[in-house]
Amino acid sequence: MLIDRDDSYDEGSRDQRRFSVRVLVAVVVLLGLVLMIGVRMFNLQVGAHAHFTTLSENNRLRIEPIPPTRGLIYDRNGVLLAENRPAYQLEVTVEQAGDLDLLLKRLTPLVELTPVEIERFRTSVRQRRPFQPVLLKAGLDDEAVARIAVARHELPGVEIEARPVRHYPQGADFAHAVGYVGRINDRDVQRLDMRNYAGSSHTGKTGVERYYEDVLHGITGHKQVEVNAQGRVIRELSVTPPVPGQDLFLSIDVELQRAARDALAPHDGALVAIDPATGEVLALVSKPGFDPNPFVNGISHRDFAALQSDPHKPLFNRALSGQYPPGSTLKPVVALAGLEEQVTTAERRMFAAGYYQLPGHERRYRDWRRSGHGWVDMSRAMAVSSDVYFYDLGYKLGIDRMAPMFEAFGIGERVGIDATGERPGIRPSREWKRAAQNQPWFPGETLITAIGQGYMLTTPLQIADIASTLANRGQRVQPRLLRAVREHNGAPPVIQPVRQLEPVAASDEHWEVIHQALIDAVHARHGTAWGSIGSTAPSYRIAGKTGTSQVFSLAPDQEYDESRLDRRLWDHALFLAYAPADDPQIAVGVLVEHGGSGGRVAAPIARKVIDFHLASSGLLADAGNAP
């Protein structure tokens, strides 16, 4: 068979052309890919140089927060009330830790972790950025620190840090006034500027610690550090130091606080003492108290439940949050309203029988003394605490003329003390009842309001504030716990200014009537505080007023008899006072829960506190002679 050479040549030529085209396409594609790679490399190395340089540096450099040192809290004489003690704590940086469940499993044999601590840790992890250390356990002992250090190579992201931990050396004595700090929770995140809490795990929860959080916390610093691939710090490159919190000096006197606590024993109750000239709170006691130290790093559920279920309610701040009818301690205010409104005079006398009746009504409003007090004027009625006299005065005044005087004294309003938990009480009026109960005001309610019962509620702080206003003859001064602030620059403490409030308007003549009546209540033989204070003849005079606060209402034909009642149904005992009467240095409000008698129980407590304060101030020679 013959082969056509021309056909064979044409076919080979076509194959050669196809091969050349394929080579050319491959070269073009290859050149395109090389060009794309070149462009990409150019963009990476030139166009995005700054961005990737930053990323590279961040793999090598790290910014770490430096939490500030919390400011200290002292009493007025420089005694520590809140300090910072060094302690070891276990912290975890989440971005270095990897699997948290695995990490916690590895830590379990090394350190005791309670379910509460683990739950708090997981909550904090959600609140913090991954590069910020999160507290897992505080208060590590030396053995736990050693065990973790040995196993450190198996615990990525785990560090043991020596951090200052809040401690309250005075324990329960100042728990309600100073308060305490605790771990930051979800509610705290909502109210705090978390940018200033990077590295911080605690914040003020109650009391002064919470109220002055911004002053005590300080400003967070930071440092730039170089780290290796495992996240270990190799060296510090730059540091911006934190600004420590400022130190606070409270107006409270530790020794007076303890004297007040001891004077209250064995009763539950509250005592507030104020310097009438400055408004400085000299003592603020709520009894019983509690140890605030377990709350710092998280009190156990069992211990917290025990405090909550305690029938004496140690967590309840009676001084600021307890609301009680003021009883007869309100009578000086009602008497002043009667004088100012010209519905009575100091000299007007009336026969105070054992009960009072409204015109046209059958109900009898009884006096605390069933036989009555006979003929009384204003001074004697105040001294013997005649309910019938003040029923009559209240009826003549009416609620519409009493309520403005209550308002002038700040009753039913927060006094604005610099602590948490203060409640306003209730200032009853026609408008208040309509708004609160959608009911009209009845004449009988005016009578019981005039003796400090019924709807009216006050706090022990308000009772002390009323005493201070009476001592100043109407000039109200803002009560406060903060006396001075000190920066961490060696400067002396800066004393806080006195803040005067709107005074209670009344004539000097009327103030003198009230003043003398309060002295008679203590030093006249017929006074309700004569037996417990006046009969012991102190070297100075006290102006005061006893009071009882009803726990339950009596039927018209029912008689109050302590001996037949459970102690929990006894009246609360109250007393307000200021001394020395002619040059007041201290004003006191006392509330004894279920104490029964203001004159028999509350007045001697106030006397002991006043004696102690005047003696420590060098103003009293025979201090401590009170029975």
TrEMBL record:
Active-site residues? S328 (acyl-ester intermediate)
Q: Which HAMAP family match?
A: MrdA_transpept
Q: Which UniProt keywords apply?
A: Carboxypeptidase, Cell inner membrane, Cell membrane, Cell shape, Cell wall biogenesis/degradation, Hydrolase, Membrane, Peptidoglycan synthesis, Protease, Transmembrane, Transmembrane helix
The portions of this protein that span the membrane are 21-42
Which Gene3D superfamilies does the annotation name?
DD-peptidase/beta-lactamase superfamily (3.40.710.10), Penicillin-binding protein 2a (Domain 2) (3.90.1310.10), Penicillin-binding protein 2a, domain 3 (3.30.1390.30)
Per UniProt, residues of the Penicillin-binding protein transpeptidase domain are: 269-610
Gene Ontology terms: biological process: cell wall organization; peptidoglycan biosynthetic process; proteolysis; regulation of cell shape
Q: What topology in the membrane does the UniProt record assign?
A: Single-pass membrane protein
* InterPro entries the UniProt entry points to: Beta-lactam/transpept, Beta-lactam/transpept-like, PBP_dimer, PBP_dimer_sf, PCN-bd_Tpept, Penicillin-binding_protein_2
What species is given as this protein's source?
Thioalkalivibrio paradoxus ARh 1
Compartments, record wording:
Cell inner membrane; Cell membrane; Membrane
EC number(s) per UniProt? 3.4.16.4
Its recorded name reads Peptidoglycan D,D-transpeptidase MrdA
| First-listed, main subcellular location of the protein, grouped into a coarse class | membrane
Residue ranges of every copy of the Penicillin-binding protein dimerisation domain listed in the record? 65-237
So what family is this one in? Answer: Belongs to the transpeptidase family. MrdA subfamily.
Q: Name one GO cellular component term.
A: plasma membrane
Q: In which pathway does it act?
A: Cell wall biogenesis; peptidoglycan biosynthesis
- What's the stated role of this polypeptide? Catalyzes cross-linking of the peptidoglycan cell wall.
